[in-house]
Specification:
By secondary structure, the protein is α/β, with parallel strands linked by helices. Helix content is 44%, strand content 20%.
């Protein structure tokens, strides 16, 4: 997992660099929560570019980070989601509360 914080926009970008399953979610959860509480960002963007697999534990992990971010007054977004993971998000309804932003939109926010 790689994190990058931009103070100007209060934007925390989290690039997940591993599969998200029941073996990895506890560690990811702890690391991500630490970063969110450290920076208190207005926007948290999860970059799924390097994620090739995610199971239901990953959905739970995302919902928990969504709740934490909202509780702190921020919002959560997703980017670079491949088709198989997007299909999982659509089936479970996660896209109704957490939007996927495209690369161009993300780059505009960083300018």
């Amino acid at each position: 997992m790689n994190c990058e914080y931009e103070n100007k926009d209060k934007l925390l970008k989290i690039e997940i660099t591993e599969e998200i399953d029941h073996h990895t979610t506890q560690n990811l959860r702890r690391k991500i929560d630490n970063e969110i509480q450290k920076y208190m960002p207005q926007t948290v963007v999860f970059d799924f570019n390097s994620v090739s697999f995610m199971d239901s534990a990953g959905i739970g992990m995302l919902i928990g980070r969504y709740k934490l971010t909202r509780m702190l007054g921020g919002k959560l977004e997703l980017t670079n989601v491949n088709q198989s993971i997007k299909k999982i998000f659509e089936m479970c309804g996660i896209l109704k509360i957490i939007p996927i932003i495209d690369k161009e939109e993300k780059d505009e926010k960083c300018i």
